[in-house]
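Structure tokens please, single chain.
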Amino acid sequence: KEKSLMANDFSSNFTRQLARVFLEKFDSERVLSKNVNTQLLQGRFNPSTGDNVDFKRPTDYVSVRTATGDVSGETADPIITGKATGTVQPYFTSFVDYDEADEALKMDQLDQLLAPMATRLKTDFELDFAKFMMKNTGLVAGTVGTGVSTWDHVAEAGSIMASTGIPSDGWCYAVNPYTQRALASNQRSLGVNPEVGSANSKATIAENFAGMKVMTATTLASYTTGTGADRVGAIVTAAPTATYSAARDTMTQSIQVTGFQANLVVAAGETLTVTGRNRLNLSTRKLILDETGASILFSGTVTSSVTLNGSGVGTLVITGPAIYEATGAYNTVDSALAIGDVVTLGGAASKVIQPNLFWHKQAFSVGSVPIKKLYSTDTVATTEDGLQFRISRGSSFLNNEQKVRIDFRPAYGVMNPFFAGQGFGRA
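Here you go.
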């Protein structure tokens, strides 16, 4: 009796060979996603977690000083635990006809077939992740909209990170290729240790400048500022909530504003500053001062696009909240935002702005979500830092076609928006 075989019953060795070549091509092309935490979200997603998974933020406290050591009259610090959230993103998928893949395998031409697929998935993934990074940055260095042209502009980001109290390991700074060209004219002995074949290494301009790994990236995100010259307004209606307990889970803050251009579109990724409210070092909780002794203004980044009404009124949600409480354990500003405070949007109107990005490796996390098995031959391929892909070979009997597809489903998380920022130059 002849044994009947299902249409999808294929040799798994085929997908293994595709996985090996694809993974090598994809992993060697990554830049931004190579320089963030790829382990925190790894293994946390399963069928019971849904599309989000939470993990604790670190707590902080204040100390008291007494002459006798008697603290009976002092108030004990509350233990406030916040949570950061990893959120599942849509699938990234690339697919080809089986015959094309089979022929490439037999002719030892998988590199030619899979390299463009790997590059496309890598590019789309890094573009998407770069946009996520940009709109979840809590810091700003330089003048918004001004290009970086000298190394001291780059160094300003390092100064901001050091002054903010960010741990000094794992700082990164990414620029576009034309900024790299501008910096090349005054580069002095900024050597790197190349890792052959790695795009991440080839992108590195300086391994340790102002404490940062400086690199070039073609996938930096951009935003377009709205039409209308009036980009200065004020806080209205109610003072933004200034407590850590309100911000601890999202690390965002809602600000009701007025006085801006009528019907102004404020894009995700735009930054704002608040006059008279100054940034604190997150370790010492003391004012941050620049080289002239001037305080650094509080700034925030708009997380999602908002269209203000015909009177220039609306609510902006920013990341990197202005926290001010009597205890001071989590304060990020020297005084709370209040009604009437002047709010200024960075940059000029109707401009495409592509910020450089600077960040600590623990500012963001990216992981991959296990993808359910198809009724086909599947191979799961994993990069060295834990990102997983499903390579599947199967058929559609209705369409009378056989396909090979590669799927990747990432999850993104913001660990700390104050560990990342947008970098610009100075006029």
